[in-house]
Amino acid sequence: MTSKGILYVVATPIGNLNDISSRAVEILNSVFFIAAEDTRHTKKLLNALGINTRLVSCHEHNENLCAEKIFEALAQKKDIAIVSDAGTPCLCDPGAKIVKKAWSEGYVCSPIPGASAISAIMSVSGFYGDEFHFGGFLPEKKNPRRERLTYLANFKCPFIIFEAPHRIKESLEDIYEIIGDRQMVLGRELTKIYETFYVDTVSNVSRLIKERDVLGEIVMVIEGYKGDENVMSPEDEAQISMLLNLVTSPQSLAPKDACRMLSPLLGSSVQRLYDIYLKKNKS
């Protein structure tokens, strides 16, 4: 038995309410209060489960104030639970700062595992899951987003990213340009009634997405590079540079347009071809 309260980090369903564990229900029923990212959202879950535990707001804008309430209760040997709107807390959601401080002050933090969009999409991706990288949400603005994608492009393992529905079309275009036409799986509304998967190359998924309105939460997993995209022999680079020069004469295409045209033919990303072009012209 601990002489202080326990901070429980409780996973909740990402869609289907039946995905809540019996242990999570037991903990949510027994704690002094539940720190929730959105109390209105969590209240609906608690009502469905018949749980009457008090809710305290705990989001990114009031995390410090919430922390004071949590540590005051823990010091009085009262157990507290943290939940996010859906899935496992502290993964692209508030709570990590509170957990870190709880450990530093000698409190026990206990995970109550359950649903997570990360493990859910990886499990149905078909990619070997002994190693993968979680990239979180892509930045909202174009240039930071492309910088993040350039970083992710170098991973040999599959990587998982979240995206908002109103940005997915332009993000897929950037993924194609920066990373290339790799295999990917895009999941929308996981575990919900309108759960949808797109399993194809980046270019085909992008084309399908452009043809329809996209709503709901989106998670993607994209295969890692196989070595040929970012590691080319001098002969490869010379050949590609020659092709680029042929189509970027004053009478022909602009460099970026030439790279877009050659990308599917040469099996390399637009960004990689453009980097080679710039390297050739600097030399």
Would you write up a description of this structure?
This protein has 283 residues and is α/β, with parallel strands linked by helices. The protein folds into 3 domains: 110 residues, 3-Layer(aba) Sandwich (Cobalt-precorrin-4 Transmethylase, domain 1), CATH 3.40.1010; 105 residues, Methyltransferase, Cobalt-precorrin-4 Transmethylase, Domain 2, CATH 3.30.950.10; 49 residues. Helices cover 42% and strands 17% of the residues. The strands form 2 sheets. Strands 3-2-4-1-5 form a 5-stranded parallel beta sheet, with helices on both faces. Strands 6-7-10-8-9 form a 5-stranded mixed beta sheet, with helices on both faces. Helix 6 crosses helix 7, helix 7 packs antiparallel against helix 8 and helix 10 packs across helix 11. The longest helix has 14 residues.
What's this, in brief?
With 283 residues, the chain is an alpha/beta fold. Helices cover 42% and strands 17% of the residues. Helix 6 links the parallel strand 6 and strand 7 (159-163).
Features:
single chain, 283 residues, alpha/beta, Cobalt-precorrin-4 Transmethylase, domain 1, Methyltransferase, Cobalt-precorrin-4 Transmethylase, Domain 2, five-stranded parallel beta sheet, elongated
The CA-CA distance between the termini, in Å, is 69 Å
CATH homolog superfamily of the largest domain: Tetrapyrrole methylase, N-terminal domain
Structural class by secondary-structure content: alpha/beta
Second CATH tier, the architecture of the largest domain: 3-Layer(aba) Sandwich
Q: Total number of β-strand segments?
A: 10
Helix share bin:
40-55%
CA-based shape: elongated
Highest CATH level, the class of the largest domain: Alpha Beta
Query: Tell me about the biggest sheet?
Result: 5 strands, parallel
Rg, nearest Å:
23 Å
Order of helices and strands: EHEHEHEHEHEHEHEEHEHHH
Number of helices: 11
Instruction: List the strand order in the largest sheet.
Output: 3-2-4-1-5
